[in-house]
Automatic annotation (TrEMBL):
It comes from Sphaeramia orbicularis (orbiculate cardinalfish). The keyword Translocase does not apply. GO terms for molecular function: transmembrane transporter activity. PROSITE patterns: MFS. It is a multi-pass membrane protein. GO terms for cellular component: basal plasma membrane. Pfam families: Sugar_tr (PF00083). Its main location: membrane. Residues 96-518 form the Major facilitator superfamily (MFS) profile domain. The chain crosses the membrane at residues 145-164, 173-193, 199-218, 230-253, 259-277, 347-365, 377-398, 405-424. It comes from the Eukaryota. Keywords: Membrane, Transmembrane, Transmembrane helix. This is Solute carrier family 22 member 6.
Amino acid sequence: MGFADLLNEVGGFGRYQWLHVTLISFPGLLMASQNLLNNFVSGIPDHHCRLPTNHSIYNLSLSQVDERQLLRVFIPLDSSGNRFDRCRRYVEPQWQLLAANSSANVSFVKTEECEDGWTYDHTEFEATTVSEWDLVCSMRPLKQMIQTIYMGGVLAGAIVYGGLSDRFGRRTVLIWSYLQVAVLGCSCAFSPSYTVYCILRFLCGMAVSGVILNGVSLKVEWIPTKTRTIVGTLTSFFFTFGQMVLAGLAYWLRNWRTLHVVVCAPHFLFFAYSWWYSESARWLVLNGKSEEALKNLHRVARINGKPEMVDKITLEVLHSHMNKEIESSRSTFTAYDLLRTRGMRRISICLIAVWFSTSFAYYGLAMDLQKFGVSIYVMQLIFGAVDIPAKLLALGMLSFLGRRITQATCLFLSAVIIFANIFVPTEMQTLRTTLACLGKASTSSSFTTVYLYTGELYPTVIRQTGMGFVSTMARVGSMAAPAVLILDEVLPALPSVVYGGAAVLASGFACFLPETLNVPLPDTIEDLDFHVSSPINCDCTLMSVSIFYQLVQTGLTLSCTVVTPVDSCSIVYSWVLLV
C-alpha cells in the first residue's frame, strides 16, 4: 500500500484534480513570455549613425534630396554592399555621391564611429531596451547579457527555491513566487537604467524558476500514477500556446515597457487564487504535519464527490499507507544525497546531461529569431505552432513507448536536424528555417518529457531538491547557448556541431535512466535504488554515440568514421556507472 492508493480512494483524477491542475497550469501561458521576452523587449531595430547636427550648413537644398540619397553622403555601405553600415559614418560628407550614376571610389575614405549616437527605424519596434540605451555596435554584447543575467536568475532560483520548497512546502514557495514575478516584473517596466533593469530581471528569473519547479511538483503529487503522462503532456501545451500569445502581444504592443507590464501583471491574479491550492499531502506527512495532510485529503474527497471517505480515512490509515516514507523522512537530505547511492548517482548524472543539452539546443535556436530573415512576430508564432504536433506525438510515445525511449528519441532527432542544417546553403533560407522549426519542436518535446520524467524519478523525500539540482544545468545550458554563436567566426558550422553534439550525447545518457511508465512514484531513496537495480540495455546508447561520432566527422571533414560498439558503450557506461 502507498499514497497512490489513497489518491484513488478519494476519487483518483476527479473534480479537484481538474481544478488544481488547470489553475496551476494557467501561469504557463506567461512563462514562455518571461523566457523569450528578450527577443522583443531587446529586439534590434534597423539603425545607422545619426547625421551630424551641422549638416544643414552645407550649400545644398536638402529638401530636394530624398533620405536614402542623403544617407549615402554621410554613411558608407557595409561589407555586403547592399545596406548602410550600422556603426560607421564618413568623417567628411561625400557630396559627390549625389551625382547621377556616381561611381566615385570611397573605399579609402576615412570613417569614424557614431559620435552623435544612432537613428533607429521604428517600423518593427516602437521602442526597445536596445534603442533606449543604445545597445548596438560595440555595446551590442550588453543586449545578450540581459538574457544571460535573466537565465542566471533562473539558475539561482532553481537552487534556492528547490531547497526552500522541501523545507517550507510547495504551496508556500509557489504563492511567494507568483507575487515576486508580479511585483518585480512590472517594476522592470519602470527601470531608469540598464543596471537596474538587469538586477530586476535577475530577481524575476529566480521567481520564474520557483513557479515552474513548484508548479510541476504540486501537480505531480496530487494526481494518480496512470494519469501522470497525459496530464504532464497536455499541461505543457499552456507553455506552447504561451509562445503564440507572446507573438500576438509583442505585435500589438511595440513598446517594451508596456509589454513588460502586460505579461507580468496577470501574476497578481495567480497570486490571489493560489491560496486555494492544497499543500501536498505527501510533503505534509513526511514533515510531521499529518493532521493537516488528513484535512487536505478529506477536502479533496468532498470536492471529488466522495464524502464517505472522510470517515474511513483516519490518521492511522494515512500512516499505515505511508509508514515506510515516514521512517525514511526522519533523515535529513541535502544535495549531497543526490549522489550518495549508486542509483541516485546514476539518475542525477544522466538527468544533468539531459537537462543541459535540451536547454542548450532549445535556446540556441529560440533566442535569435531575427537571423531568419522573416518577421520576428511570424517566426515566434511558427516556433510556437510547431510544438503542437510535436507534443501530441510525444504524448503518444510517452504513453506507449515509455519515458526513456521518448527522451532519447527527441534528443537524438533534434541533433540529426541540427546537423542536417549544416549542409543546407544559406541561400535556401526557407529550408533552413523549416529545419530550425523542426529542431525546436524536437527540443520542446524533450523539455516536456524531462519535466515529467524528473518528477517521477526522484523520491518524494528529496524530489524538489533533485529537480532544483538537475534543472540548474538547464539554466547553465541556456546561459551558454548564446556564447556558442561566436564560434561561427572560426567555422560557420561549428555552433551547429556543438548544439547537435551535446544533444546526441545526452540521448545516450537518457538510455541509462530507468523506465517509469505506470510505475508508482518512489517515496524513499530505497524505493529508487530497488527500481534502478534492473539491468541496462546498451543498444540505444550504442546507436546514439556511434552516429554522433560519424556525424561530427561528416560535418567537419565530409568523411564518415565508424566507431566500434564496444568503444561507444564503454565511454558512456564508465561515466554513468561511476562509483
